[in-house]
Amino acid sequence: MSTVELTKENFDQIVNDNDFVLIDFWASWCGPCRQFAPVFEGASERHPDLVFAKVDTEAQTELAAAFDIQSIPTLMIVRENVAVFAQPGALPESALEDVIGQARQLDMDEVRKSIEEAGPQG
Question: CDD domains attached here (predicted)?
């Protein structure tokens, strides 16, 4: 499956309609982003059951600001509308596969419970 381009218009629908979304925040001028792109694309082919999406931070400045993206590339994983992973930096293929495996194994009921117990932030 190829990657999906996320915009402020389709972001909510794609994240709400899919239980597992990997999001690559990137920009065309960013060298590490260009290095990470084939790794991300390769993972999308190995994991056709997951949604792989990209946010061009230059074109989608509101989305980048909403997620407080300070450094690119930043990889975010959203499971069942909960951001379970967010980390800047271009991951090597083995690290990306490891993160995907860990995110797949999360018990989302436990994640939601721990978020509830932590209470409101701020």
Answer: TRX_family
CA distance 80 to 18: 7
CATH of residue 95's domain is: 3.40.30.10
Domain count, the chain: 1
**SS3 label, residue 9:** coil
C-alpha distance across the termini of the chain, in Å? 38
Catalytic residues: 30, 33
Range of the domain at 109: 4-118
Query: Token digits for 18?
Result: 């899919």
Whether residue 1 has pLDDT greater than 60: no
**pLDDT tens-place string over residues 26-84:** 999 999 999 999 999 999 999 999 999 999 999 999 999 999 999 999 999 999 999 99
d(CA 12, CA 15): 5
